[in-house]
Every structure is written in C-alpha cells, then in structure tokens.
Specification:
- The complex is a heterodimer of chains A (254) and B (338).
- Chain A is mainly alpha-helical.
- Chain A has ten helices and no strands.
- The model of chain A has no long low-confidence stretch (mean pLDDT 89).
- Chain B has 14 helices and 14 strands.
- A six-stranded mixed beta sheet of chain B has the order 6-7-8-3-9-10, sandwiched between helices. Chain B has a four-stranded antiparallel beta sheet with strand order 2-1-4-5.
- In chain B, α3 packs across α4, α4 crosses α5 and α11 packs across α12.
- Chain B is elongated and about 80 Å long.
- Classes of the chains: A mainly alpha (254), B alpha/beta (338).
Chain lengths: 254, 338
C-alpha cells in the first residue's frame, strides 16, 4: 500500500506546484460564491417582501435557498472536475511516465486508487468552501436548517463528485490527448445530467431506465435529505465501474 | 540472471517480436542491436513487464514476470526510450517519489536518492525543476531513477539517443561503471556503441533474433579469413604475383598505385600469413611501407547477418570491403543499399 501513498503524495505535489489546482480552487470559489450571494440576496428579498404582506418571513430555507444552491454546486462541479481529471492519465500516456508506473513494483489498482483519492482530496477542499457558506446560513437562520438534510446534501455532492472523478479518470486513461479527454468527459457528464428529460415526453420502460441513469434524479433525493439505498448504490456502482475499468485499461497494451 | 524464453508479441496479424530467446549472466553488459523498428523496444517492454507478451516468458533472477510481476519488477531498473519524468517536479522530489514507488523503506530512501544523484553526477541539479533541465541532464535523471533501488538487472533503451558527443561519452562511462554489480541490457542502433560498451551483442532484425555472441566471435563467424592491406614500393604486377605464390594467401587485389608505391589487399588464410607476406616482400628487395590487418566493422557484420544486399557485396568482393577499415563503411553501405 506504500505505492498508493506515493501516488497520492506525488499527485498533490503536482497539483500545487502547477497553477492547475489554484485555478480550479479560485474559479470554484468565485462561481460558488456568486451563486450563494445571488440566491441569498433573492431569498432575503423574498422573505422581507412576504413579511411586509403579513406572510411572516417564514419561507422554507431548504427549498428556497439550500436545495437550489446544492444543485448549482453539482453543475459547477460538472464543469470544473473534467479539467482536473482530463490530464490524470492522458498526460502520463503522452509523456511516457506511464512506463514508470507500469514497470514499478506496484499494483495497477494502487495507481488508479492513488490518483482517484488525490483528486477526491481536491474535491473535499472544494466542498469545504460550500460548507463555509452553509455555516453562515446556519448561524443566521432561525430556526436552523436541519442537520440531516444538510448532511444528506453533502454526502450527495461528495458521491456525485466521486462519480465525476472516477468516470473522468477512466476516460482520461483512453487517450493521450488532454483535449480529447476533457471534451469527452464533459459531454458524458452533461448527457448523464440531463438524461432524466426523457420522462418529460416518454413514459415507456426504456425512458425510465434512461432516467434512472441520470445523475440529477439521484441527487434530488440526497438534497432533500432523503437517504435512499438505491441512490447510494447507483453512485457507488458508477464509482467502482470507473475505477475497475481504469485498472483494466492499464493492463491492456497500448 | 535473466532468462527470456520464446518471447513473441503480435499486434493483430503483425508479428512485432518473433520467438526471441536469450539469457544474460550476472554482471554482464549485453547489447541489443538492430535497426529502428526491429523490435528492440517491444522486447524490452516485455522484459520489464510494461507489455504482456503474446507468447513466451521472462524470468528475472528465477522469478517469473508473469506469475509474480511485483517481485520481478523489484529487481529491474528501467530507462525507457523517453525518460519517464514529471517536468513540474524538482530532481530531488521526483527521485523521492520513485523511491517510494519502488518501495524503498523510509529510512533508506534519502541515502538511496543521494547515492543515485551522486552516481549520475546530478549534484548541482538536485533542486532544479526537471522541465528546465537540458536533455543530457534529463537523461541522467532517467538513469538515476533506474538505479535508485540498486536493481540486479538494468534495462536501458537507447541511453545515448539524442545526446551530444560529450554527453554520449559520459553516459557510456556511467554505464560501464555500473557493470559488475548490475546486469545491464542496453539497446542501440549505433554499432560502435555496442562494440565499445558491450561484452556480448544480440542482433535482432524484423522481430527475429539473428545472432548472439561477442563482437569478436561475430567477426570471426562471418569472415574466417583475414584481410590484410599492404603498401609496398614495387611494381603492381610483380608484387601481386609474388604474394599469390604464397600458400597462405587466398587472393590478391591491386587497389591502386601512386608515385612508385602499390596498394594491395590480400585475403589471407590465417593470421600467421602476415609474417609470410612481410618476408616475401622484403626478401624481394621491396620497401614495405604498411602492413595491417583489416577488421570487419560491426556495420558489416550487421548488414551481412541481416541479409542486406550491401553486405553480400562487401563479403564476396575484395575491393568492395577495402574502404571499410578506413572508416568509410557507412558511406559504402549507403551506396550499396541505394
């Protein structure tokens, strides 16, 4: 397992000696901050307006503020995480360092997991920003938002982000070109995100299968604080599929 | 130390490496020689476990690469054709990463990295970012990476490719200094490199093993006779006739005449024939200005073994092989091949 640790350390070092990680972190902070500020401002305005007409300033903070915020964070990750995963393997394939990794006395899975966990670490830092926003709301909102719903939402975002990373890792392992990896990853994510649209015009069984594959359908439950085993299984199976396929891919010849 | 048995690799219907078998003893430097595209890199990639062979097997130090890849890989240091470097890391950080990757225990990591830096003469560069190093230094970082865990088997794929002449000499010196404790297999398409650095040479062409032997034996195998070049102050016909009369001499050709001297090329049946030639010429009262044996260059051996038309010409006719000893062999083989 020391091989795993070596990969994680090296990946983090590479993230932070190049501008890549800083750019992702900074842009995410700007975008998520803008979402948070806009939604909060709108929410405050709406509830003040409601109070003025005797409604009592009691708009549901979950459905009016937090749930849309979490959804938008999910979309922001959809845009940014392909930028993180696209180089993970494509660059090693291109520069020849894959020969070092494949001829070192480490298991393929150590390399795959190491890269995945290092990227997961970066995702956790991103979610930490979001946690900061939520703390602000929790401090000022009375009654406080429910911890169960918040926890569910964070778990959902973490799982969703892990799916992005694992599938992105696999797509990156298929090519030497970062651009090809980035564009393909982004397209796959976008399709998975909007796949549930089919149920809007089709009620057949096939449409339901496609809708089940949608990342959105499953995030909805988490964000609403509903922890359904079905959703957890869905995310976990996508994560394992991505990691497994990447390891298999490493075993095959070029 | 290393056993390669019937190794084959096919990409679809194309056979890149076909049934290659050889072995390497402990501490020897083995040259892997072949034209570009002969299958050298593919073979090395199979030995190091980068590519799974289609057929055959690799045994390193008694351990099968197929059955125990992790254990086998521990015993190999590998420098691929393109040094596997991370341009964003410093030399030291990179080597520390490789040390972890190669599972060198924590307390021995720093000494191992320091030793590798010292042996590859990278002391001044240890803190520099790899992306800013010159090509020669990058190659050394690649070698430092390969020798980091003191592997019994070192595989170097074209270690001198793309370096300037001085760096080539330094790299060869480094490789020779590593022999003894390590078994080294190095590939090259430069024959002089194999001749100067390697104890044994493996010649492969189009995925097939053509020959395995020492450079000297290879020479002998292709040309059991000895070619001697003579310059003598004498009329051409008279000198040639005198030499043809000797029992040790198989053939004589006149290369040219200038001033009053004649240059001749003599095909002798044994090395002792040189003495007889000298005696005959001096005995006839002619002044001998030069008498030297011509050795086959590896170029000629190589071309003859790989069956190129230039080689056939060089072998059969005396005059064609004449310029070889004077360093003109490259030009000649180009003409022959064209």
């Amino acid at each position: 397992m020391s091989g795993l640790w070596a990969i994680i350390r090296k990946e983090w070092k590479s993230y932070f000696v190049t501008p890549a990680a800083y750019v992702v972190l900074a842009l995410f902070a700007v975008i998520a901050g803008f979402f948070f500020y806009s939604m909060l401002a709108y929410y405050v305005m709406s509830s003040m307006g409601g109070g003025m007409f005797g409604g009592g300033g009691n708009l549901d903070i979950h459905s009016m503020l937090l749930q849309p915020l979490f959804f938008d964070i999910g979309i922001t990750l959809l845009f940014l995480l392909p930028m993180v995963t696209m180089r993970l393997y494509a660059e090693e394939n291109r520069s020849g360092t894959m020969e070092l990794l494949k001829t070192a006395p480490v298991r393929r899975m150590e390399v795959v997991l190491g890269k995945f966990l290092a990227a997961l670490g970066l995702l956790l830092v991103l979610l930490l920003f979001v946690f900061g926003y939520v703390l602000v709301i929790w401090h000022y909102a009375h009654p406080h938002p429910g911890w169960a719903a918040l926890g569910g939402a964070f778990l959902g975002l973490l799982l969703l982000g892990s799916v992005y990373l694992s599938l992105g890792l696999f797509i990156s392992s298929l090519t030497r070109s970062q651009v090809v990896a980035g564009v393909s990853t982004f397209s796959v994510f976008l399709l998975l995100w909007v796949a549930d649209w089919v149920t809007a015009y089709d009620n057949g069984g096939f449409a339901h299968i496609i809708a089940y594959l949608s990342l959105t359908t499953h995030l909805t439950n988490f964000v609403q604080g509903v922890l359904d085993l079905k959703d957890v299984v869905y995310y976990l199976s996508l994560i394992f599929a991505g990691l497994f396929l990447t390891a298999r891919r490493m075993e095959l010849a070029e | 130390m290393l056993e390669v048995q019937n190794l084959s690799k096919s990409y679809g219907p194309k056979l890149a490496v076909n049934q290659i078998s050889f072995s390497a003893r402990k501490g020897e430097i083995l040259g892997f020689l072949g034209p570009n595209g002969a299958g050298k890199t593919t073979t090395m990639r199979m030995i190091t476990g980068y590519l799974p062979p289609s057929r055959g097997q690799v045994v390193v130090d008694g351990i099968s690469m197929h059955r125990a890849p992790i254990e086998a890989k521990r015993r190999i240091g590998y420098l691929p054709e393109l040094p596997p470097l991370y341009p964003e890391l410093s030399v030291r950080d990179y080597l520390m990463f490789v040390a972890r990757l190669k599972k060198i225990p924590g307390s021995q990591r720093k000494p191992a990295v320091d030793r590798a830096i010292e042996r590859a003469a990278l002391g001044e560069q240890r803190g520099r970012i790899i992306g800013r190093l010159s090509k020669g230094y990058r190659q050394r970082v690649g070698i430092a990476q390969a020798i980091l865990n003191e592997p019994p088997l070192l595989i170097l794929d074209e270690p001198t490719a793309g370096l300037d002449p001085r760096q080539i000499l330094e790299t060869r010196k480094l490789v020779r200094s590593l022999a003894g404790e390590h078994t080294i297999i190095l590939s090259t398409h430069i024959l002089a490199e194999a001749a100067t650095t390697c104890e044994r040479v493996i010649i492969i062409n189009q995925g097939q093993l053509v020959a395995v032997d020492t450079p000297e034996n290879l020479t002998h195998r292709i040309k059991p006779t000895e070619t001697v070049q003579v310059e003598v102050r004498a009329p051409a016909e008279a000198a040639a006739a005198a030499l043809r009369a000797l029992p040790e001499v198989a053939a004589v050709a006149v290369l040219g005449q200038h001033n009053e001297a004649t240059r001749l090329q003599v095909e002798a049946r044994s090395a002792a024939a040189r003495e007889a030639i000298a005696r005959a010429l001096v005995g006839a009262g002619w002044g001998v200005r030069e008498l030297r044996p011509l050795e086959l260059t590896l170029e000629e051996i190589f071309l003859s073994l790989t069956g190129s038309p230039a080689a056939a010409a060089g072998e059969s006719s005396l005059s064609a092989s004449a310029p070889a000893g004077e360093g003109g062999s490259a030009a000649k083989s180009n003409e022959g091949g064209a």
